Amino acid sequence: MSVDNHSLIEQLAKHLQRPIQNIVRTRSRLHLLDWLGCVAGARRSEIARIEAGFSADPAPYKAAWLGNVLEMDDVHRTAILHPGPVVWPTVLAAGADVLDDALDAAVRGYEAMIAIGAMLDGRHYAVWHNTATAGGFGAAAAAGFRLGASEAQLVSALGLAGSVTGGFWQMRHEPVMAKQWHLAHAMRTGSEAARQAVAGITGPRFILEGPQGLFAATCEAPKPLELPDGWRIGEVSFKPWGACRHAHPVIDAALELKAKGALGGPVTVSTYRDALVFCDRPDPKTVIDAKFSLQHAVAIVMKRGVPQLADFEPDAIAALAWARALVRVVEGPEFTAAYPAHFGASVSTGKGTVSIVDTRGDPERPLSEEGVIEKARALMAWGGIGVSEAESAIETVLEGERVSDINRILEGWL
Question: Which residues are bridge partners to 354 per DSSP?
Fold first, then answer.
C-alpha cells in the first residue's frame, strides 16, 4: 500500500494531469509519423488482408493490428515495451477532432504505459509480453483523456484495464499472429475501460500492488513507481532497422566493424542475456524468425550492409545461411549488468572488435527529425504508397490540425 493510502494508479493519475509543453507535443508528432509509417509498411501483409475483411471496423482499429508487423515500432528500454502501436490507434479512435488534444492524450498514454511497464520485473518479462500487459493501461489513460475523464474516472479506467491484463510470450514459439492480437486487444480493452469509467463503472484502485493484483500474480520483485518531472515520451527510442530491438545493438556494432573493413571470417557476438533468450536463432525459417535472429542480423551486415526489409524475406534467409554459420553468440556479463537501461553488444573477428553501449535511435544517439521522416518514406514505399501520397501524409502529420485528416489517410490505405 502506498503513502497516505494513495494507490499507485492514483499517484499515476494525478501525475498525468500536468500540462504538456509545445516541445513535447512536437516530439509526439514524430512518434505519430513513425507509427503511421509502420502501418503503411505493413499494409500488404497477410494480417492487413485479413483485417480488411472486417469492413465495419473503423480504420484505427484495423491499424492497431499493423504497427508492429515489421518490428520497426518505437521502444522504451527500461519498460521493455513498444508504446506507439497501442497508443496511436487509441487516440485516433476516440474523442474530438483537434489533433493537438489527441497528441496530448498520446503523451499521457505513453507516460502511463511506460510508468507501469518500468515497474514490471524480470520474472514478468520472462513469461509476459510487457507491451500487452502495460498496453491496456496506456490505452485506458490515452482514451480517458480523449473522453474528458476526471481524475477519479481515470483511476477507475486504469483499474478496469489492469484487472483483465494479459499477453503471454508463448506466441514466440509458434508461427502465429498473436503478437499483433495482443496490441489490438490492449487498444480495445483500454479504450473500453475508459468509456465505461466515464459512464460511471468503477475499477480497483490497488490493481497493481493489492494482495491479488498484477504484481502478486506476475512479479517477484516489482520496481518502485517513478514519476519524473519530464514526459517519458522523450525516453522512447526509434528503431532504424526492421528487426527485434534486442538485435539492434549487434547490427550497430557489426556496421561499425564492417566500416573498418574488419567484418569477415568467424564472428563472435557478445550481448546481454535477454537478447540471447529472444534472438539466438542460428537457423531461422520464417520472416519473424529472421527478425529475431542475431546470427541473421550479422549475416546481413557482413554480406549486404545496412539491413533493409527485403533482407529478412525468405530469399535472403536462404541466401545467407553460409554467413549465419560463421556467427557464434555468447552472453556478455557486462552487457547483462547494464541492461535494460542500456542495450549493448560487441562484435569480434580476428581483425578487430567493436563494442557499443547504446544503439542508434536511443535518446543518447537519437535519430534526427529528418532521419525519422526518411524512415517513414522508406516504410511507405515498402507498403506501395506513391511518393506524392507519402509526402502529403508526412505533411499532414507534422503540420496538420485535425484527427479526421489522419483517419482519412488510414481509410485510404486500409
Answer: 347
Fold of 245-356: 60s Ribosomal Protein L30; Chain: A; (3.30.1330)
φ, ψ dihedrals at 284, nearest 5°: -65, 145
Phi-psi group of 403: left, alpha or beta (phi > 0 → left; psi -120 to 50 → alpha; rest → beta)? alpha
pLDDT 10s digits, 339-362: 999 999 999 999 999 999 999 999
Instruction: Give 128's Cβ-side CA count (13 Å radius).
Output: 21
Q: Which residues pair with 353 in a beta bridge?
A: 348
**Overall pTM surpassing 0.85 (yes/no):** yes
Question: Are the C-beta atoms of residues 42 and 383 closer than 8 Å to each other?
Answer: yes
Residues of the chain with CATH 1.10.4100.10: 3-240+371-413
CB of 360 closer than 8 Å to CB of 375: no
- Partners of residue 346 on adjacent β-strands: 270, 355
Bond from prior residue into 340 cis (ω within 30 degrees of 0): yes
Distance CA 29, CA 37 (A): 12
- Give the architecture-level CATH label for domain 3-240+371-413: Orthogonal Bundle (1.10)
Q: Residue 268: enclosing H or E segment and its boundaries?
A: strand 267-271
Q: Side chain identity at 374, as an amino acid letter?
A: E
List, by residue range, all CATH 3.30.1330.120 domains of the chain: 245-356
Taking only the tens place, the pLDDT of each residue in 275-292 is 999 999 999 999 999 999
Q: What is the mean pLDDT of residues 134-142?
A: 98
Q: How many CB atoms lie within 10 A of CB 138?
A: 32
